[in-house]
Specification:
By secondary structure, the protein is of the alpha/beta class. The protein has a single domain, classed as Metal-dependent hydrolases (TIM Barrel, Alpha-Beta Barrel), CATH 3.20.20. The chain is 35% helix and 16% strand. The chain is built from eight helices and eleven strands. The strands form three sheets. Strands 3-5-7-8-9-10 form a six-stranded parallel beta sheet. The protein has a three-stranded parallel beta sheet with strand order 1-2-4. Strands 6-11 form a two-stranded antiparallel ribbon. α1 links the parallel β1 and β2. The chain is globular, with a radius of gyration of 17 Å. It starts with 21 loop residues before the first strand and ends with a strand.
């Protein structure tokens, strides 16, 4: 367990340039999932994230059969609408879109038809999540299948899965090609103390590839601001994570 040391204060009233300028996991497209209910809420979240130091956000709405039946077409349409509003209001932030896919049979049908949205250009990073009680063996099987299909599997918030609190299991996933995206809020204990400890373990073992806000609302950004003050956050940003490598090229692929 790392010691929590408060380094600096981050105010929503000032623009603060972070070591981390790209967010790869955010629910900011309106009316697509459990994120903003309208475009004005989207704009408020984006303005706040800009003030926090973000310069690019990759929107990742949920895709889950029966709950969030989003398609590449409606996601990209929503993205373009939001981009147009940002431009009209002179909000200078880069916005792209992928998706957060739920681990289910339908995901593999979408992969087979090449109907998934990814980020990272030709690297085709595919962000996915699972039930928090999913067996590690099922996640490992999914990682292998996603990799074999030509995508790079990125497991969202691995620290939140109860069956992934074992270093050997985590190493096995990484060995088979999984990249890990840790939620920034996890470092503050926002989800639970156990989740915080696993997130710190992943940082300590240098096993994270991305940090993500997983932001759904303006209120949720408060825990992320608190994380910016922590020693563990600073250590994470010094691990050669991949977020900022996405700043110089288009991140959305529909393939």
């Amino acid at each position: 367990m790392f010691e929590s040391i408060f380094k600096r204060d981050v105010s929503s009233n000032e623009t603060h340039v972070l070591d981390l300028t790209v967010d790869v996991h955010a629910h900011i497209l309106p009316q697509l999932d459990d994120g903003p209910v309208d475009i004005e809420q989207s704009i408020e979240i984006i303005k706040e994230m800009y003030a926090m130091g973000y310069r690019k956000i990759i929107a990742t709405p949920h895709v889950m059969s029966g709950y969030y039946n989003n398609t590449p077409e409606n996601i990209l349409q929503s993205l373009q609408t939001l981009r147009n509003v940002l431009k009209s209001r002179n909000i200078p932030i880069e916005l792209e879109a992928a998706a957060e896919y739920y681990l289910e049979d339908e995901l593999f049908r979408l992969i087979e038809r090449r109907e998934v949205l990814t980020f990272g250009g030709s690297k085709k990073h595919l962000l996915f999540e699972a039930s928090f009680i999913t067996k590690a063996s099922y996640i490992l099987e999914a990682v292998i299948k996603i990799k074999q299909a030509g995508y790079t599997p990125v497991l969202a918030h691995p620290e939140r899965y109860v069956n992934l609190n074992d270093v050997e299991v985590i190493n096995r996933l990484a060995f088979n090609g999984a990249l890990f995206q840790v939620n920034i809020g996890s470092l503050t204990g926002y989800y639970s103390k156990q989740v915080q400890e696993v997130a710190e373990l992943l940082i300590n073992k240098k096993l994270i590839a991305f940090l993500g806000s997983d932001c759904h609302s303006l209120a949720q950004l408060e825990s992320i601001k608190q994380a910016f003050k922590l020693k563990t956050f600073k250590e994470a940003t010094q691990l050669n994570i991949l977020n900022n490598t996405l700043m110089e090229k288009k991140a959305t692929i529909f393939a």
